[in-house]
Automatic annotation (TrEMBL):
<feature type="active site" description="Proton donor">
    <location>
        <position position="191"/>
    </location>
</feature>
<dbReference type="Pfam" id="PF03740">
    <property type="entry name" value="PdxJ"/>
</dbReference>
<dbReference type="InterPro" id="IPR004569">
    <property type="entry name" value="PyrdxlP_synth_PdxJ"/>
</dbReference>
<keyword id="KW-0963">Cytoplasm</keyword>
<dbReference type="GO" id="GO:0005829">
    <property type="term" value="C:cytosol"/>
</dbReference>
<protein>
    <recommendedName>
        <fullName>Pyridoxine 5'-phosphate synthase</fullName>
        <ecNumber>2.6.99.2</ecNumber>
    </recommendedName>
</protein>
<comment type="subunit">
    <text>Homooctamer; tetramer of dimers.</text>
</comment>
<comment type="function">
    <text>Catalyzes the complicated ring closure reaction between the two acyclic compounds 1-deoxy-D-xylulose-5-phosphate (DXP) and 3-amino-2-oxopropyl phosphate (1-amino-acetone-3-phosphate or AAP) to form pyridoxine 5'-phosphate (PNP) and inorganic phosphate.</text>
</comment>
<feature type="binding site">
    <location>
        <position position="7"/>
    </location>
    <ligand>
        <name>3-amino-2-oxopropyl phosphate</name>
    </ligand>
</feature>
<feature type="site" description="Transition state stabilizer">
    <location>
        <position position="152"/>
    </location>
</feature>
<feature type="binding site">
    <location>
        <position position="192"/>
    </location>
    <ligand>
        <name>3-amino-2-oxopropyl phosphate</name>
    </ligand>
</feature>
<dbReference type="InterPro" id="IPR036130">
    <property type="entry name" value="Pyridoxine-5'_phos_synth"/>
</dbReference>
<comment type="pathway">
    <text>Cofactor biosynthesis; pyridoxine 5'-phosphate biosynthesis; pyridoxine 5'-phosphate from D-erythrose 4-phosphate: step 5/5.</text>
</comment>
<feature type="binding site">
    <location>
        <position position="45"/>
    </location>
    <ligand>
        <name>1-deoxy-D-xylulose 5-phosphate</name>
    </ligand>
</feature>
<keyword id="KW-0808">Transferase</keyword>
<feature type="binding site">
    <location>
        <position position="18"/>
    </location>
    <ligand>
        <name>3-amino-2-oxopropyl phosphate</name>
    </ligand>
</feature>
<comment type="similarity">
    <text>Belongs to the PNP synthase family.</text>
</comment>
Length: 238
């Protein structure tokens, strides 16, 4: 069954907006796991707009499911943060400074040598590595040559086009996942997955190991409550 990793970036956004500790990020992470989340994901960014580097150290002490740290390994501070905390998984995302959110996967062909070197650093530390890629065959093939354990399919395009034509929206992701599986890569997915589009995605993507979901899930929790919302998302994953 596909595992649900809850991204708690937006809890930190709310907390930071008033400068205090409400909502308490550590308590929310603990409760997410209590409510059934099978992983906790954070995406510390250099401007610390939401997840702060200290949050990662604090979360490492209490996360009992799988801890997934996402971010840009082109920042030395990110590399040091991950190696100091040794999460179960690191997800390498090619963000550039000032992006409102992540909006593209790696060019795994142009960055093959760089990614191969970075991936070996984290794997030697005993950390599973996933790299953020678009559902493009050449990028998946390039990912397989870097030594990464998994890819994370960037699902914004699927979410954007889901309502117009869901079969057309998911087609490149099915093809990319089939290729990744043939190449021996694990398959994660994330970005803009929500209660409307998640079940169709999970039902149709072969060998999907994990989805990481944050923005929509936390937004839904404002209406349905966090415990109920996590259960609703888990039900979509069957
Ligand atoms: C890589 C990915 O798709 C998510 O981690 C996303 O980047 C969330 O980041 P924000 O919460 O800052 O939008
Ligand atoms: N890797 C995707 C993630 O962690 C959360 O993305 P989103 O659900 O906040 O768009």
């Amino acid at each position: 069954m596909t595992r649900l990793s809850v991204n708690i970036n937006k809890i930190a956004t709310l907390r930071n907006s008033r400068g205090g500790n409400n909502p308490d990020l550590i308590q929310v992470a603990t409760d997410c796991e209590l409510f059934g989340a099978q992983g906790i994901t954070v995406h510390p960014r250099p401007d610390e707009r939401h997840i702060r580097y200290q949050d990662v150290f604090d979360l490492k002490q209490i996360v009992t499911t799988e801890f997934n740290i996402e971010g840009n390994c082109q920042e030395q501070k990110f590399i040091d943060l991950v190696l100091a905390n040794k999460p179960g998984q690191v997800t390498l995302v090619p963000d550039i400074l000032g992006q409102i959110t992540s909006n593209h996967g790696w060019d795994t062909i142009a960055n093959r040598e760089y990614l191969t070197g970075m991936i070996s650093v984290f794997k030697q530390a005993g950390i599973r590595v996933s790299i953020f890629v678009d559902p493009i065959a050449e990028m998946v093939e390039g990912a397989a040559k870097t030594g990464t354990d998994r890819i994370e399919l960037y699902t914004e395009a699927y979410a954007t086009h889901y309502h117009q034509d869901r079969d057309q929206a998911i087609a490149p992701y099915i093809a990319a996942a089939e290729l990744a599986h043939e190449l021996g890569l694990g398959i994660n997915a994330g970005h803009d997955l929500d209660l409307n589009n998640l079940k169709f995605f999970a039902d149709n993507i072969p060998a999907l190991d994990e989805v990481s979901i944050g923005h929509a899930l936390i937004s839904d929790a404002l209406y349905f409550g966090l415990e109920n919302t996590i259960h609703m998302y888990l039900r979509q994953l069957g």
